[in-house]
Amino acid sequence: MSTEHNTRVMIVVWRWIDANKIGVSQTDWQDGVWRSSNGNALVRLDLREQTGRADFLLDLITKNFSDCEVALFLHQNHPHNFEESERIDIQNQLNKAQIKARPIFFYGGDEPIYFSHNPLGILGINGDFPTIKIDGTNVIQSDFIEDPSKKRINQKHFDFVWDFYWYGRRNRILELSETLRIRFFDYLKTRNPVGAFLRQETETKLGDKLLSFTLTEPDEEAPAIEYDMRPYLTYFKYKKQEDYSSVAESMSKVQQRVKTLLNSTAVDKDAETEMDTVYREITALYVSLPEYTQ
Amino acid sequence: MRRAYIFPADTPVAEKRRAWFRESGVELLPWPGTAAAGEVQAVLLAGPVRCSNGQFVHPEGVWRRFLAKNHPAARLIQIGLRHDLAGPNYMHWFDPPADFGVFWQAAQSVTDMELPPPIGFTTLAALWKKFWDGHDKGGFFYYFSWAKLPVLAALDNVEESPEEWLSQKNFLESEAVPQRFQNCRHRWAHYKPYWEAAPFAGELAALERELTQLHLDTTTMTDSAATRQQLSELKKHLQATESTLETLHSYFTT
Question: A147, A165, A183: which is the final residue of a domain?
Fold first, then answer.
């Protein structure tokens, strides 16, 4: 994978056992910073439910990491209980500040960020870094921490977790296919030209999502950033040694198919056929994508 | 005329499609909830279901367990746009069978059918497990149990020795019982949107009403009588909550 990118920062708000439980006015967050060999940073925060914590995070990022790429991991469970409205608010503010940052939810212990479910995970079980886990009769030792005295972490782990969450689009594709399915169910009631019918849906902003999905040129603005597949295609480009060219081809084909559907004037049975084809191809694309790019 | 329910209840169905069902002797109705459903003959389930938090979930397993227990002869028919799930209990919405009556006859009852493995999204049962067990002692069951036991113990002690109300109040505070109840409510609030995909929304709403009553305010425990009264009330809500939880929990677990 290319190393030509801005400094990457993962801020993980979690119940760290030995990180300061910080308040929104505190400035000692630097104590929780660990770095990998190429200078990427992991910032550990334990920011419990309190008024102003979104502002604190925004302030932290804009003052210290404005020229970095920032993955902000927000723990959805107790005792942090981050909510979707907070995540969206933070994302909007970061977009306004033109900072390349992405707030990402995690919870439940069974995501790849956790060592218990991924040897390259970066979180242990009880608010600590990963140590060992038992897999059947095997004892697996994590090598995430390289040098505790220098707060040095393993680049390989950092890169995996970063790639997984930063570029992950696979689930967005599945969500898109099922949002389409629900919209398609409605089609028989309206019998309008199918492209306009899809673009007019406002409840889930389906038109924005579909438009974002179809973008391929670098200077086009995506109205629904999470459905913009260009980072995914970039990721495939980085991963060319693993031969993801066929997946990239499938992606491009489905993008074109969706673009055609958005402009389609087909009605009735012809519209159903087009919708059926898009649904089938987009779900097939989902299945073909590497599972770890959730 | 036979009756088939469709879920989610707001799944759009064109009048032309309703007429097509009627021609096969089937009236298609939105799922009205367990109390109003009467005898359930068939449920058409359009999954995965999108919940109000925008997340999708597969509820088929929970529906099957619910129907198998309460309506064992019912047909659970999945509807959608998948071509690879063709089988006696799957109907493609754009490519329906020639005669739904014949399809109905061939569909397996909920106790005999096999569900295809869910694709992509998590299942409702898996979410319940996360809600219930959590990880790192963070599950609803942990907080509920460790809030309930001190309350019951304190109530027993106050009833037996009313003069010890203050030490019982201190005991409840030292056990962080108010915070544990709060954690229960937090976990419920976090997972609540997912339960919309379950057949028993009414029962879950009743459970939520009970959960809002699980509240311990030690500042009003100013004497033996006030302590006893609050704990007695709390005990009733705890028992009602536990009873409902036991019933619902069985639908989420194999």
Answer: A165
> Is A98 within the bounds of a domain?
yes
Are residues A226 and A194 part of one domain? Answer: yes
Per the structure, the complete domain to which residue A119 belongs is given by 8-165
Q: What is the pLDDT of residue A105?
A: 84
Q: What is the DSSP string of A103-169?
A: EEEE-SS-STTBGGG-TT--B-SSSS---EEEETTEEEE---EEEGGGTEE-HHHHHHHHHHHHH--
- Which token pair is A95? 């977009």
Under an 8 A CB cutoff, do A108 and B135 touch?
yes
**pLDDT range class, residue A194, cuts 50, 70, 90:** very high
Where would I find the beta strands (DSSP E) of chain A?
Answer: 8-13, 33-36, 41-45, 69-75, 100-106, 132-135, 138-141, 145-147, 152-153
- Look at residue A111 and tell me whether its pLDDT is greater than 50: yes
User: Given an 8 Å threshold on Cβ–Cβ distance, is A184 in contact with B81?
Assistant: yes
Q: What is the pLDDT of residues A48-84, one digit of tens each?
A: 888 888 999 999 999 999 999 999 999 988 888 888 7
Question: Is B141 an interface residue toward A (CB < 8 Å)?
Answer: no
Query: Is pLDDT of A240 > 50?
Result: yes
Residues A186 and A70 in one domain: no
- B117 to chain A, any CB pair closer than 8 A? The answer is no
The verdict on A19 and A159 lying in the same domain is yes
Distance of alpha carbon B135 from the chain centroid: 20
Whether A125 sits inside 8 A of B136 (CB atoms) is yes
B135 touches A at CB < 8 Å: yes
The answer to the question of residue A3 being in a domain is no
Q: Are residues A153 and A269 in the same domain?
A: no
* Residue A281 with chain B: CB contacts under 8 Å: none
Nearest to A78 among B94, B121, B186 (CB): B186
Examine the domain organization and report whether A175 and A160 are in the same domain. no
Question: Which residue numbers of A have CB closer than 8 Å to B's CBs?
Answer: 15, 76-78, 81, 84, 107-110, 125-127, 171, 174-175, 178-179, 181-182, 184-186, 188-189, 204, 272-273, 275-276, 279-280, 283, 286-287
Residues 6+ apart with CB under 8 A from B103: B91, B96, B97
Element holding B5 (H helix, E strand): strand B2-7
Contact B54 A204 (CB under 8 A): yes
Domains identified in chain A, total number: 2
Residue A69 is part of a domain; what is its CATH number?
A: 3.40.50
Is B81 close to A188, i.e. CB distance below 8 A? Answer: no
Contacts of A109 in chain B (CB under 8 A): 135-136
Q: How far apart are CA B153 and CA B12, in angstroms?
A: 52
**Final residue in a domain of this structure, among A121, A139, A165:** A165
Instruction: Specify if A1 maps to a domain.
Output: no
